Amino acid sequence: MKYARNLQELKIEKITKQVNSKLDNLFTKKKLKSLYDPCAYILKDGGKRLRPLLVLFSAEAVNYNLNDAFNSALAVELLHNFTLAHDDIMDNADRRRGVPTVHIKYDTNTAILAGDNLISYSYHLLLKDCSDKNCKAILNAFTTGIIEVCEGQSLDKEFESRKDVSIEEYLKMIYKKTAAMIEMSCKVGGQLNNASPIYIKALSNFGMHLGLAFQLQDDLLDIIGSEKEFGKNIGGDIKEGKRTFLMLRAYQLANKQEKALLNKVFDRKIDSKEEIEKVRNLFEKLGVIDEAKNKINYYTVKAQKYLNKLPNKKGVETLFWLSEYLINRKK
After folding, report:
1. DSSP characters for 182-198?
2. Are 140 and 191 in contact (CB under 8 A)?
3. Higher pLDDT residue, 123 or 237?
4. What is the DSSP string of 223-292?
5. What predicted TM-score, i.e. pTM, was given to this entire model?
């Protein structure tokens, strides 16, 4: 089945502009600048806006008017940015999306408070779209998403002190940290229209597998991407000793000498661009970059199969195009 990619791009560009416009105006009338200026800074130039787009197009895919789903779309984007602000503090990250992180721009206490405010405001927005029929289900899905992402972040930090993390454990961690919120975005989009359980399940499965592919792609771009396009320092995961698929699979395949280099990554003793390049070359030699690409493709194709169960062709085509875009993205 061929899709009119140019038309889908225009559609996504239009909706993304609407999302950005609404986010830009969200806190403009707030007078407490010490709180709301940092909140606005976190949301500014926010990248792909994947999660709100998934809410909107998932709603469309089950015959709901996507124009009635914007509050929920904004809610998941605020929630996502709350997690980013706090993750950046925990990871000692100094840049995101090519600009200083909020705790660098302001200070750590301000960043924590701004993140807390975003999660609170996300519920304020979400409740505007809820009805008596769907409110409990939507709030449950949304809150479960928060719990999952916190558990995922906790696992990620726990793994930093372990060298025996399995790939299965890694996949569980990225499900919780990344895929669960993408799954929730799709699920909430369907719940807005009180869609049938079959449609909700299809959207959830689509989001879950798309989320796994998305995080694997993010890990891959950290080592093979362009710093200018990616918006973050290349090799950041290596410098931070992150247990990614690339690292864990490479460690399984490495010989004793190669493990010595990877142990330096685990111990956070890799810092220079020359050392990062050595790790990258080892990944290529062991074939784990190609393995990661194959896994990304596997989860993307699996996600797309669930779209066949949904009733609205326009929404399905847009979700399909979006999944194709994500697998080929450079940032």
Report:
1. HHHHHHHHHHTTT--HH
2. no
3. 123
4. HHS-HHHHSS-TTHHHHTT---HHHHHHHHH--HHHHHHHHHHHTT---SHHHHHHHHHHHHHHTHHHHH
5. 0.91
| CA dist., res. 115 & res. 36, Å (int) | 10
Cα separation values, 126 from 61, 83, 114, Å? 20, 17, 18
Q: Which residue segments constitute the domains of the chain, with CATH numbers given?
A: 5-327 (1.10.600.10)
d(CA 73, CA 58): 11
Q: What is the pLDDT of residues 69-121, one digit of tens each?
A: 999 999 999 999 999 888 888 877 887 877 889 999 999 999 999 999 999 99
121-144 burial: b if 16+ Cβ within 10 Å, else e: bbeebbeebbeeebeebbbebbee
